[in-house]
Amino acid sequence: MSGGRAVPADPVEPLYVGGPDGPWAEVQDRFREDGRAVVYTTWGAWAPTALLDPALPRLLDRDWPRYRQLPHADQRLGFAASRYVMKYTAAAALEAGVEEIDLVYQPGGRPGLRGRDDITLSLAHTDELLVAGVSRTGLIGVDAELADRDISFDLMSGHVCTPGETARLSVLSAPERASRFLRLWTLKEAYTKALGYGLRRRFSTVGFEGEETGAAVLSAPAADAAHWEFRTHRVQDRYLVSEAHRGDRAASQPPPGPGRDWV
């Protein structure tokens, strides 16, 4: 029996931002109206900014040592680009300067903002794609995978699927099974990232239904299933992007200003 809250059949797509110039007005509008926003881009679109920005050490702040320790140039550029995307997205949502955004990390690795427990963040990347989510209405998690990624259902289903999911997928044709399995994978990644668990929680303990529609729901026995919304989108015709959101706070409340006490 399903316990989640379904979202419309045609949910709002993630927003594309091609670089530091945005378009950020759309992100601000989405954040005001929905209390959250999910954006996607490519790291190559942001790499020149990271490469040429003399303020890179200051903007990366506590991420700077980690950036310096990465052994390859492409790894460093991808890492810097991902932090720029997250900072610019948070700055746009809060209508603040990017230099005011101070990233921190929870013990499980989930990003957040120093002094702003009312704001939650999530970041995902695969291949050239970067995805960032920001919310003021509850936990958020995002995940992305190449839509044609070949994952062995026979080898991985026991680690990823509940018995019910395995039974449902087993009777499908191979292409449909692969598509549904990948959707489940990204949904469970997004959900566990929102919770701050990441890969520390076994995916086979989390059940979904309706993943084929793009608006899945948690299956029982999740006690708080009714508070969660899940969406899966195909972007750039190459990637699957899944979003998990737990609506803890009223989206109708205006977002608080960034203030200076947390800078």
Strand order, sheet with most strands: 1-2-6-5-4-3
Termini separation (Å)?
46 Å
Largest sheet: 6 strands, mixed
Rg of Cα set = 18 Å
Proportion in β-strands: 15-25%
**CATH level 1 name:** Alpha Beta
Helical content class: 25-40%
Q: How many helices does DSSP assign?
A: 8
Order of helices and strands: EHEHHHHEEEEEHHHEEEE
Structural class label: alpha+beta
Classified in CATH, the superfamily is 4'-phosphopantetheinyl transferase domain
Low-confidence segments, given as residue ranges, are 1-10, 249-263
**DSSP summary, beta strand count:** 11
CATH topology name:
Ribosomal Protein L22, Chain A
User: How many structural domains can be distinguished in the coordinates?
Assistant: 1
Coarse morphology: globular
Mean residue pLDDT? 85
CATH architecture: Alpha-Beta Complex
Description:
The chain has 263 residues and is an alpha+beta fold. The protein has a single domain, classed as Ribosomal Protein L22, Chain A (Alpha-Beta Complex), CATH 3.90.470. It contains 8 helices and 11 strands. Helix 2 crosses helix 5.
Topology:
Elements: E1 15-16, H1 24-34, E2 36-42, H2 43-52, H3 56-60, H4 64-69, H5 73-94, E3 103-105, E4 111-113, E5 116-126, E6 129-135, E7 140-146, H6 153-160, H7 163-170, H8 174-195, E8 208-209, E9 217-218, E10 228-235, E11 239-246
Parallel strand pairs: 1-2
Antiparallel strand pairs: 2-6, 3-4, 4-5, 5-6, 7-11, 8-9, 10-11
List descriptors.
263 residues, alpha+beta, 8 helices
Q: Could you give a short description of this structure?
A:
This protein is α+β, with helices and mostly antiparallel strands.
